[in-house]
Amino acid sequence: MPPEEFSDPASKPTNEMPLPPLRSSSQTVDATVAQLVQAGLQDLETRRQALLQEIEQLERRRDRIKAEMRTTFAGASQELAVRLQGFKEYLVGSLQDLATSAEQLELTPAPTAATSQRRPSRPEPEEVPPDISTTAFSIQRFEEQRERVRSLIDQYRTRPDYYGPPWQMRRTFETVHADRVSNWFFTQGGRGAVKSLGSRLQNVVVASGAISALYAIYGDRLCNMVLANSPERLGEWRRWLQDCLGISRADFGANRGIMLFESPESMVQRAERLMDNGYLPMLIIDESENNLPLAALQFPLWLVFAPDPANPSQDDYYYQG
Asked: pTM score, two decimals?
């Protein structure tokens, strides 16, 4: 027999597939993970740069607003004070002339001997109606009412009630509004001009604060009269007074609530009749009026919005278009 042949088992053919190298597969996974991490880092860096740019823009905007506030409320205060002082001197002179003319009028006839003899020795006391002219909020009068008004103005500014009862201030009342209303009450005695804020809406907010405080004291006895020289402007007054005071169209009437006038003559005539009937008229004159009606100076309460040449009202450009 031929000798038995021994063969290597590895030399025998097999049907099994060869396995891929483990090291190359691990390297592929590591490369993919590295790419994902790099892409995530780039995305985070992009977002970080965008946030830094937004923060820088907000800081520049904050600085610009602060600069504008310093310019508006601090830098222009001296010019406003000078203009207001000049207007105050003009009004004081007009009031002095009016008082002099009133003193020269002979309002009651001199008593005669016949009327003195017919006069009873002890006349029955008669009820004297309240003197409406004494409602001025000067320093010497109405200390209790002055404190009430101060408290109301502070309430409108610090604790606004946007859903309060009608005739109560419902709009945001800022410090600039409170300062103008306080000056009108306690420095000008409820009779004087207020520098316009450059917007009819802002002027309505100031007037609404004064109306709300007066209504809290006098109630339905107070009659507010608004004078403007066009139906469009009166329409704005009506709409914004309704918004600021929470009132309706029913509160605008011929002899109650708020009355709107285009003519100063008709407004003065109506105010005189209201005073004769025991009501308290408050005259509000829009800045569009070029001249102050001198007849308005006889009433106890009047508020004039004086235009500011350095800051003209933007509302007038709308009507010119």
From this structure: 0.57
